[in-house]
Known about the structure:
Strand 2 (12-16) and strand 3 form a beta hairpin. The chain has 128 residues and is α/β, with parallel strands linked by helices. The longest helix has 17 residues, at 111-127. The mean pLDDT is 89. It is globular, with a radius of gyration of 13 Å. It has helices spanning 33-46, 68-72, 88-98, 111-127; strands spanning 5-8, 12-16, 20-25, 30-31, 52-57, 63-64, 78-84, 105-108.
Amino acid sequence: xxxxxxxxxxxxxxxxxxxxxxxxxxxxxxxxxxxxxxxxxxxxxxxxxxxxxxxxxxxxxxxxxxxxxxxxxxxxxxxxxxxxxxxxxxxxxxxxxxxxxxxxxxxxxxxxxxxxxxxxxxxxxxxx
Length: 128
């Protein structure tokens, strides 16, 4: 693992690594298309022409506007999304959200498995 970057946004904490981003939304936040533009700026800054996987570490309770995923699907170098939660209701919600995203989307109950999957997605992309 190389250097990583940390961003403390008003509604989330973002950790940017070499091949993936881990985002932890704050309690009570709502993910909207407007907040999605900040994600796109971070991706543009750190992954200009490089593939990336987004990992959402859902340790707090917050809302997601599923329509956000339609805009997220337009980020060209965003290969996949992983949702991490051990809460069964949140897992069901994530499966519903996946219907709005066109690329690979998977739910995990721990961050380690999500990172392994993210790296596999990157390797598969680079070898194709």
